[in-house]
Amino acid sequence: MKQQHEPGIAVVVGPDEGDSFWQPVPANGFVRTLLNRANTGASVDFSAGTQTVAPGCHVREHFHDDREEVIFITEGTGTALIDGVEHPLAPGACLFLGKSRKHSFLNAGPEPLSFFWILMPGGLDDFFRQIGRARQPGEPAPQPFARPADIDRIEANTVFGWTAKS
């Protein structure tokens, strides 16, 4: 006899919903934190959202020593540097980054580079909240701003095993 299961929760986050944060240099741009275990009741710990990296900017090299990450490029072009090897990025490209894989993203193009991310287990949303500034949909980008003075503490207490200091 097949066991019956209750359906899980369904969550839909609209285009102007969810928390969003402007990001400091060197990425600039912004993130949207969309889904996580807390707002979905998921049986596995994860966080998911989007990041938009401004033209000429980059996400610093880093790794997550106890997390895995999926990245799906939605717009723009750029380069992923994974363990020292360059990989071109364009809409439709998808990356899986296992534990402790060093990676960074460079937007050398004239348009924003945007991607959807999932981190397992979660926590990336906590990091973005701590280093960013609240963003409202449609508002103009602020002038570039510095990372918090206590960035090393924030990184150590969230999801990072190591980050480049540039």
UniProtKB/TrEMBL annotation:
Domain Cupin type-2: 50-118
Protein's recorded name: Cupin type-2 domain-containing protein
One Pfam family cited in the UniProt record for this chain: Cupin_2
